[in-house]
Specification:
With 119 residues, the protein is mainly β. The protein has no helices and eleven strands. Strands 2, 4, 5, 6, 9, 10 and 11 form a seven-stranded mixed beta sheet that branches.
Amino acid sequence: VQLVESGGGLVQPGGSLRLSCSASGFAFSSYVMRWYRQAPGKEREFVAHISSTGDSTNYADSMKGRFTISRDNAKNTVYLQMFSLKPEDTAVYYCKARRVVSGIVYDYWGQGTQVTVSS
């Protein structure tokens, strides 16, 4: 099982980035996918969620209208498009796959990708 995030980097305030998370080793299309982030000295926080089929999404309040989560099950990839980035968006961004089967939770995490918003 592997989740590999990419697309992070340094961007100026107001800029945009698109993160990708490529999955392998499990039935990607059966898992809901989520993005989280963790800023220095802070706890990891939820960013966005997308259903296994991609027809349902939700976001943390502070990301609504600025971030868009999407997925391509044919490519085993989930994306996070980020617009109007702010310095407070600086964090390591992680993707997570989750599936619950007969009450058993299967969670897989990626290693994270750094996003730095700074002028």
